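Quick start: what a row looks like.
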Amino acid sequence: MTHTPASATEQAWAALGGDPALLARIEAAGPAGLLPARLPVRELARAAVAVCSLAAAELSARRTGGPVPRVRIDDGAVATAFHSERHLRIDGRAPANFAPLSRFWRTADGWVRTHANYPHHRGRLLGTLGLPADTADDRAVEALTASFAGRRAAEIEQTVYSAGGLAVAAGTPGEWAADPRRLALTGVPLVERARIDAAPARRTAALAGAPLRPAAGLRVLDLTRVLAGPVATRTLALLGADVLRIDAPQLPESPDAHSDTGFGKRSVSLDLASRTGRASFDGLLAGADVVVTGYRPGALERFGLAPESLAARRPGLVIARVSAWGHGPWAGRRGFDSLVQVATGIAAAEADPQAQDGPPGALPAQALDHGTGYLLAGAVLRALTEQHDEGGSRLLALSLARTAAWLTDEIPPSADRGTRDGTYAPKKWLTETDSPLGRLRYARPPVAFDGAPADWSRPPGLLGADAAAWLTA
């Protein structure tokens, strides 16, 4: 008897702890040839958005007392959203998604990839060569090219990491399979879910009217950066949550990244190392329903923000964490989608076979970030549904490396690998709005179910310009 492997959507919904009978509520359609790759990226993207949408529909039904709305996934909308940072325009300007020093470099034994989008990471990378942080890009590229060409990738990786920068040696899928970093993920679920106290059920207010915003009235503290975490909280904002993004004044988010992921949110600047900053945060925590963090494990504990501490101070809290590596020897390291692709062999698998001795490739989108973001939002929504009846503080954890393993090892391969012929036209799934940041062109939200909001309630505002207070008492 032939065993049919579970689809990506079935796997993802099971990872969220969802009722398999609800999968029949999902419909998906759209143009062929999207998100072209050798790996099943389209299936990952569709599944992540589908289960997030289903979790939103389920929560809506729980709060209204009605049936679970039907979920309708448009693959074109999904593909466009997975490229949201590339489609963004700010007064007609296209953001630079990767800085000149965020790239592959030839080494004596292969390739290494660096990430230097943030000024402090760029400065630390240049510091390994004794160069000042303000070195011009062309001079920096010349110096790094010459230095790295004569050194081994693993040595560069360690040297840059020791300096507080980001560099990862490129490996193959076979090398990753035997690597302690991959072995540490063995048996780890795609979505780690745990109940961490016995707080009573906290019933959220019933909803009435249409269109429904399932997370209306819920308060979310957003301590995330760059993409996966902000995608999750942007989705919760779409669904009606009051999302308050918090950044340290000394390490502000990239303005372009905020222009992409700040929809529906407000933005506060708080220094958690200061007495006044901690007092403001404590006041916000006292009224929060959800806390989402996107820093490497251990980075926030020094501020008293370990999950157990948060749950003790605010019983009934849903705490969601996303990191690059999850578990194992690199659990505490910084990381980004592009670097996880390099370490896990995804970049090698996506290399151009016609380019002899060329650099590794990349997925057609930052699919680990976007996919993990929608899974994270779905996990929060499902936790809220379960909590509505059962109570308890909830802890959720996802990582880009675990999502990478889902992509490479678990999602069934697809016959449709997409096309790179340029026939995909995203205009249908793009729109524009005025904002305090300028005129924005952006991707419409892909999360869709009967009665779902078609857009965010507000555009991004200026970073750090909002008050550290909830909108409603």
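That is the whole record. The mean pLDDT is 93. The CA atoms of residues 273 and 284 lie 16 Å apart.
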